[in-house]
Task: inverse folding
């Protein structure tokens, strides 16, 4: 069940961090979204571009889910729908994050 809701928590956590760092870069009371405290283009890009995409963490999550499901699923059949839900949530969250969040 943890693999089912963790991608959602990860998405919300990193989205909040990105928005927070952007607000701190602009200044809390700034009304314009083009104000910046960055002194170079590289600093500005680091704040406003997303993080790098590390696929090995996603592979390990998928392999862990598949292994546990096939190892214990025949004794506890509820694992199969849980694994399906986990894979579906991971797919849609990662696809949306690749489009809008990562570099």
Result:
């Amino acid at each position: 069940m943890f693999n089912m809701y963790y991608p959602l928590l990860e998405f919300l956590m990193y989205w909040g961090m990105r928005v927070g760092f952007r607000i701190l870069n602009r200044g809390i009371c700034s009304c314009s979204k083009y104000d910046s405290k960055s002194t170079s283009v590289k600093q500005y890009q680091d704040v406003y571009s997303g993080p790098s995409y590390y696929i090995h963490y996603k592979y390990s999550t998928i392999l862990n889910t598949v292994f546990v499901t096939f190892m214990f699923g025949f004794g506890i059949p509820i694992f199969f729908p849980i694994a399906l839900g986990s894979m579906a949530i991971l797919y849609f969250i990662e696809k949306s994050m690749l489009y809008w969040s990562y570099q």
About this structure: The first helix runs from residue 2 to 26. The chain has four helices and no strands. The mean pLDDT is 87.
